[in-house]
Each structure stands twice: as structure tokens, then as C-alpha cells.
Design a protein that fits this description.
The complex is a heterodimer of chains A (about 250) and B (about 220).
Chain A (H helix, E strand, L loop, with lengths): L4 E12 L2 E12 L3 E5 L6 H8 L7 E6 L2 E2 L4 H10 E4 L11 H12 L4 H14 L15 H13 L5 E5 L7 H16 L3 E5 L3 H7 L2 E6 L2 E6 L1 H6 L4 H11 L3
Parallel strand pairs in A: 3-8, 3-9, 6-7, 7-8
Antiparallel strand pairs in A: 1-2, 1-4, 4-5, 9-10
Helix pairs in contact in A: 3-4, 3-5, 4-5, 5-6
Chain B lengths: L6 H36 L4 H16 L2 H14 L6 H27 L2 H9 L4 H31 L11 H12 L2 H35 L1
The chains are: A alpha/beta (about 250), B mainly alpha (about 220).
Chain lengths: ~250, ~220
């Protein structure tokens, strides 16, 4: 089983100045696992996944990704970022580049792949997220849902071992949520290891192997979706689920 | 007999205009190069370096350009380094421009949304690629109106070079005016020359600004 561990977080503590964002977080993610992270805003769920690719530094504890211990060295951060793809709430596409250029920049610069090879890979992934015919357009010419699918393709072009999703549908108009979720479900079905911060409980039920609930920087409880939704153990979880399900 | 304002005098003004343009170009190109370095150092994330750059910018923005030209021309002469007037003012303007452009671009770099840098980092791009491919292309676009505005100020500001005896357009105008006793005509021509140089740039700058405003609404 040891070999299958992709991410291992142990005793992770993070502060922003005097404010503690993560308290003693332990998390193990195995290859192929799909994990949904939920919790109220400010609970530390975004912070947690942003620590995995070192967008945030931690003050205590350890994070090992695909066998590489993440420390402050540029080399370690590099190696880990090669293995970890990320999709952001606000897409963060590069507005001055076409969709295709968005997808080929990192493979060309960071993986040193030839332009033609990078473009072939990019077109393959753009097809896969059903946006192949928009490759020459600029991000501003696309809808929010299309932009987020480009962002997913862009991350996939680096052929990551794990994908992090930071509230990928929260900035979308309701009618565009489904196309992005469908893309993510497709990715999950293909066996991608995923950690998704999301409030889309339908998605959690459908694809998650585990649902993790966080509050005040701590993991409060976790479980398979069935048990998690039907029979949450903690009062804090029940309260949260009550609030969130009332809106759906 | 006093000479009238004729072709030779006009030619003299044109040579002054040439020097104004040349000085502006040297100061602008030099200022852009050094200013880029200032802007990058000012935003590099290293506290000490940022602090030093801040002082550098503060000194050149907080003292009169005239004083800075004096220091380069007369001050360096005192240390035994005798510079040609053009070289001296070119250095003075370049250094001054590097501080102003550095500050303009510092603001532009910081105006590029943080998410752009984060996305680039998440994709495994290093600092050099993040700056060259992602941040600077957007920052330059953001800063273009202010940069052009500064260039217009610089063109007009080069008239200060006359103070150390460098004959550029304004100084040439003064000389011709003193010879011909036709100050209205001479300075009218000088003014028109500055205007022809600056107005298209100003127009271009405000057009860029309008286009940027439109783009940010989308």
C-alpha cells in the first residue's frame, strides 16, 4: 500500500501572522483517489491544497508528494509542481495569450518540450475538454465555463500525477457549472487523482472516494460520501451540511 | 546690423531640435533599461533589496532634476572626472528616468493580478519565465499610457540641459532670439517644434488609455 501513497501531510501547521490557518493537519491521498474537501469559508480548505504545491509555505509538519519531500529549496518545489496541477476559482488564464499558447507555455518552458509536440498535446487535451475549436481564441472571447475548461486542459498538458481544484465552479454562472463538473467527472473516470475544494455536493456524491470536512483549520471528520452525508458524526458537520443542502 | 530670422537661424534651431531628440532617445532608452532593473528589484520580494531600491527612487524623485544635473556635471568634475556636456546630461537624465520609469513599472507589475503569478507558479514556471512571459507583457500594457506621458515630460524636460551649457532646442531658441531680437517669432517656432514632437505622443497615449479602459470593462 505504501507505494500507492501520492500525498502525505503530517502534522501540518500554518499561520498567517498571528492567525492559525491550519492546525495539525494529517492527510494521506492514494493514487487514483478522489477527495472532496468542504467546509465553511475560512476553514482552511483552500489553504490546505495551496500548501501541496507550495503556493503557501507551512511553518510546521511535513508534506511529501510522490515521494518528494517538500521543503524550501527551489529544486524540491520544482519537482513537486511538475507533479501537481491546479485549477483556480478565477481561472487565471493568461489574457494576452491564445488558448493554445496558454496550454503550451509551461510544457515548452518548464518541461522543455518542442513547440510542435506541445501543441499536439495541447490540442489533444483541448479536444478532451470539448474546446478544440477555440484554440486560436483569446480567453476574453470565451464564456466562464469554457475558460475554466481551458484552465483544466492547461493543467493537464503538464501531465500531472494529481489535480487540485480550488472551488472551480464558484465563479461560474449556474448554467455553466454543469459543463465544468462534467469535465471533472470525466477526468475522475479516467483515473486521475483529484483533490477538490467544492460545495457541489452532487459532485461529491457521484465521484468522491472520501469527503473531508474542515472547520477552523482542522479536519473535523472524513468518510465515504454515503456515510458522510447520511450519518455525519459531528454537530459542526451536521450544521454545515444543513446550511449547504438547504440551498440545493 | 542685426540678422533677421531666416534659413540659417531656422537651421540652427533644427540642430537644437536634433540634440533634443537625441538626448531624449538616449535618456529614454537608457532609462527604460535601468528602469526595468529598478522595477524588478523593487518587486523582487527581498526586503533589503526592495528597501535600497526604494531609497534610490526616493532620492531621484525627491530632489530637483536641476540639482542632479549639477551634481553629474560639476560634482563629477570636482572628483577629476571631466565629462562632455552631452555625456553629463545624458547620464543625469538616464538615471533620473530610471527612477521615474522604475516607479511607474513597479506599480504596473503590482497591478497584474496575483492569480496570474500563482497560475504560472502552479504550472512550474520559474521567475524569469513568469516575468518575461506572464507579468511583464501585461504590466507594460497597463503602464503604456503613463510611460508615454513620462516620455512627453522628458522631451520637454531636456530643456534643463541648457543649464550646463548644452545647446538643445530651448537654448538654441534663446540664442537666436538674442541675435535677432524677434523673441515672439523665434519662441513661436521653438514652441511649434516641441508641439509637433509631443502632441502626437500625447494623442497616442490618451488613445491607449481609452483602449485599455474599454478592455478592462469587458
Amino acid at each position: 500500500m505504501q507505494d500507492n501513497i501520492l500525498i502525505e501531510m503530517k502534522g501540518v501547521q500554518k499561520w498567517y501572522g498571528g492567525y492559525q490557518a491550519l492546525r495539525d493537519v494529517d492527510l494521506i491521498v492514494r493514487k487514483g483517489e478522489k477527495i472532496v474537501l468542504c467546509g465553511p469559508s475560512g476553514s482552511g480548505k483552500s489553504t490546505l491544497i495551496r500548501c501541496i504545491n507550495r503556493l503557501e509555505a507551512i511553518q510546521q509538519g511535513s508534506i511529501v508528494v510522490n515521494g518528494h519531500r517538500l521543503d524550501d529549496s527551489i529544486k524540491a518545489i520544482d519537482v513537486v509542481r511538475q507533479d501537481v496541477g491546479m485549477v483556480f476559482q478565477s481561472f487565471n488564464l493568461f489574457p494576452h495569450m491564445t488558448v493554445l499558447q496558454n496550454c503550451t507555455l509551461a510544457p515548452i518552458r518548464a518541461r522543455r518540450i518542442s513547440k510542435s509536440e506541445a501543441e499536439a498535446t495541447a490540442r489533444k487535451y483541448l479536444e478532451r475538454v470539448h474546446i478544440g475549436d477555440q484554440a486560436e481564441k483569446y480567453p476574453a472571447q470565451l464564456s466562464g465555463g469554457q475558460q475554466q475548461r481551458v484552465a483544466i486542459a492547461r493543467a493537464l498538458c503538464m501531465q500531472p500525477k494529481v489535480m487540485l481544484f480550488d472551488e472551480p465552479t464558484s465563479a461560474l454562472d449556474p448554467e455553466m457549472v454543469k459543463e465544468v463538473l462534467d469535465t471533472m467527472i470525466g477526468l475522475a473516470n479516467d483515473g486521475m487523482t483529484m483533490i477538490c475544494v467544492t460545495h457541489e455536493m452532487g459532485f461529491a456524491r457521484q465521484v468522491a472516494d472520501r469527503v473531508i470536512f474542515m472547520a477552523e483549520g482542522q479536519i473535523i471528520e472524513e468518510g465515504a460520501p454515503d456515510a458522510f452525508f447520511r450519518n455525519p458524526q459531528h454537530a459542526r458537520t451536521r450544521q454545515f451540511l444543513g446550511e449547504i443542502l438547504a440551498h440545493h | 546690423m542685426t540678422p533677421h530670422f531666416g534659413l540659417p537661424e531656422f537651421g540652427f534651431l533644427l540642430r537644437g531640435l536634433q540634440w533634443t531628440v537625441l538626448l531624449t532617445l538616449v535618456a529614454f532608452v537608457g532609462g527604460c533599461t535601468a528602469g526595468l532593473a529598478v522595477a524588478l528589484l523593487r518587486t523582487c520580494g527581498h526586503k533589503g533589496v526592495e528597501w535600497i531600491t526604494r531609497i534610490y527612487i526616493g532620492i531621484f524623485q525627491g530632489t530637483p532634476l536641476l540639482l542632479q544635473l549639477f551634481v553629474v556635471y560639476y560634482g563629477l568634475a570636482l572628483t577629476g572626472l571631466k565629462l562632455d556636456a552631452f555625456v553629463a546630461v545624458a547620464i543625469g537624465f538616464t538615471v533620473n528616468a530610471s527612477a521615474f520609469l522604475g516607479e511607474i513599472w513597479r506599480g504596473a507589475i503590482q497591478a497584474v493580478p496575483r492569480g496570474q503569478t500563482e497560475a504560472a507558479m502552479a504550472l512550474g514556471l520559474h521567475y524569469s519565465s513568469r516575468m518575461r512571459d506572464i507579468v511583464l507583457p501585461q504590466a507594460i500594457r497597463i503602464s503604456l499610457p503613463a510611460t508615454i506621458g513620462y516620455l512627453v515630460q522628458l522631451i520637454k524636460g531636456t530643456s534643463l540641459a541648457a543649464i550646463v551649457g548644452f545647446i538643445e532646442l530651448a537654448r538654441a531658441g534663446q540664442i537666436v532670439s538674442n541675435q535677432t531680437f524677434q523673441p515672439l517669432l523665434v519662441f513661436g517656432v521653438v514652441g511649434a517644434m516641441y508641439f509637433i514632437l509631443c502632441w502626437p505622443l500625447s494623442w497616442w497615449g490618451s488613445r491607449m488609455e481609452a483602449r485599455l479602459a474599454l478592455a478592462s470593462q469587458r
